[in-house]
Amino acid sequence: MRTAEGVCDHAKMHRWLIVLGAVLVAASAATAGVASALAAARSGDANQLTNLINRADAAQDSDGQFINSCSDAVNRPTPDRVRELVVAWAKLYPQFGTVAALNLVKCVHWPTGSPQPAPKSLKVDVLLAGVQNDPIVGNEGVAATAATIINASAASKRVMWQGIGHGASIYSPCAVPPLIGYLNSGKLPGTDTYCPA
Predict the structure, then answer these.
(1) How many domains is the chain built from?
(2) Could you tell me the mean pLDDT of each successive run of 10 residues in the chain, 197 residues long?
(3) Closest residue by Cα to residue 195 from 183, 186, 176
(4) Structural domain boundaries enclosing 179
(5) Rounded to whole angstroms, how far apart are CA atoms 99 and 154?
(6) How far is the C-alpha of 34 from the C-alpha of 56, rounded, in Å?
(7) What is the pTM of this model?
(8) Is residue 179 part of a domain?
(9) Does the residue 152 lie in any domain?
(10) What is the structure's pLDDT at 5?
């Protein structure tokens, strides 16, 4: 998405990605409505698509989402640090960096807590699901969580989609069978699963 001046409009891109995510997880009954909105937008009437974007924004910017995202950090960047991150992340992550850095401002004044201690022992083996290039949570979390699980004397396996997005099972049918198998049986698959993009 570019403005009339040719500059990438990250806010519009972010909204489009929200709509795209909504399209990917929409039930088949809603698919006709999405198709109609896209067809209307292609013909010059963006009202239906704007309504979908507004609904997605409202769901993302709800109090629950705000509380969840702002309660999920121990250290917050200062406004000056956010300014630095806007520049740095725009270079490192051209698609999402600016938006991600600006989203840090929402939680600047939210109180922080202490980090939870890592578990000493786990009695349940854990199946980890992740995406190689996750614009929402990054890709370091799966490896860090696997290390925590090992240190707690439990086993883990990974289901990783090697694409760009948030949620392995949303984007790759390859990721679904090991997840369903684990949910049904509580047993880990024999090997890690890596699903190509």
Answers:
(1) 1
(2) 45 56 52 82 89 76 73 83 95 91 87 83 92 81 90 94 85 90 92 93
(3) 176
(4) 126-195
(5) 37
(6) 13
(7) 0.54
(8) yes
(9) yes
(10) 44
